[in-house]
Give the backbone structure.
Amino acid sequence: MKKVVLAYSGGLDTSCIVRWLKEQGYQVICFVADLGQGLGRGEDLAAIEERALAAGAAKVYIKDLQEEFIKDFILPALKANAIYEGKYLLATALGRPLIAKHLVQIAHKEKADLIAHGCTGKGNDQVRFEVTAAILDPKLEVLAPVREWEFKSREEEIEYARMFNIPVDVTKKKPYSIDRNIWGVSIEAGILEDLEQEPPEDAYLITKSPTYLSGYPKYIEVYFEKGVPRRLDGKAHKLKNLISELNEIGGLHGVGRSDLVENRLVGIKSREIYEAPGATILYTAHKELESLVLDRECAHFKELVALKYSELVYNGLWYSPLKKALDAFVNSTQGHVSGSVRMKLFKGNCIAVGRKSKHSLYKKELSTYGKEDKFDQKLAEGFIKIWAMPYKK
Ligand code: ARG
C-alpha cells in the first residue's frame, strides 16, 4: 500500500480527498497546519481530527506553525515591503511554502511515497505547493485529486461525503472560497466574480465596514527594532500577539481591505478581495520608518526589490536562489530601521502621522524654512548648472 501525506484543512474538498485517495488504494496521512486561521477558535481541533479519521485517514498530524510562519515567512516579506500588484499582502502565498515544507518533512518521517493537496488546477496554490516540494525533495511525487477526479460540483461532493458517512458541516458554508491565516484573509468566488459589483458586506470576515463607522480616529504607536515590530503603544509584545492585536484594532476601524483583479501565474485574471488589518498597519509603519532612515539610493532601489520579491512569493518561488539573494539585500538595509511610528486609524484608512528614530537622516537645519537654516543656498546654483549641462543644446 502506498502512503500519501495530504494537506488537510477539515473542509469538504479535503475530506472527500481523504476518502477518494483511500478508494484509489492509498494509505492516507493527514496534516493540518495551524497558521492562525482560527482553528481552536471557530472549530475545535478534536473535531477536525475526528473528521479526518472518519473520512478514512490512517493518522492525523496537527501542528501549530504560527511562530515559524511569522519568523521565517511574514517577517522577511514585511522587511521587503512585498505587496503584489499594489494591493495584496500575500497572506495565502506566504503560507503555502511553509505547509509544503512540513508536508515534505512528514513524508520523510513516515517514509511516504507521495504528498497531496486540495488545490484546483487553475490557481496559484498548486504551483506554490508543488514547486516548493520539487525544490525540497525532487523525488517526492505529488497528487492533486481535484485536478483529476470526477466531481463536477459541490453538491456531488456533499453526496459523496454522505455516502461514506463523512461528517462535513455543509450548512455554515458561505458562498465564497476563503483562505485565512494570521496575516490575512483571501476571499473569492460567488458574486465577487462579477467585476462590476461592489463586494457585499457579508463577504468580509475580520474588518468592519468603513461606511458605518463612527467619527473617531484611533491612534496607535508601533515600535520597530531592525525592521521587526516589537512594541505596541510602548508595550512589548510577542509577535503573534502583536499581529493578532493589530488585526483586532485595525479590523474595528475597517483597515486593510482591498479589492483586486489580479494576474494569476497560470495566465488567468481573477478578482479577489483581501482583508489584512494587522499586515496593513505594520507594512505602512515599516515603510514610513524606512523613509526616515534609508538614504535615497537604498530606498529607491528597495522599491524595485519589493516588486520582484512580491512576484517571487506570488509565483511560488520562495525557495529560489533569487529570493534568497534578495533577502540578503533586504536584511542588509534593516540595521537602522528602528524607531516608532504613530498611526491614525480612521474609517478604513491607516495613515502614518508621526515618526521618530535615533537613526533618522532628517536634518531640520537643512530642510527648514525658518531662520535656523544652515543650507548654503548659494551652492545650489553651481549644482544645477552641472546637473543641467548634458541637456543643454
Ligand atoms: N489569490 C490569492 C493568491 O493567489 C489567494 C488564493 C486563495 N484564495 C482563496 N480564496 N481560497 O495568493
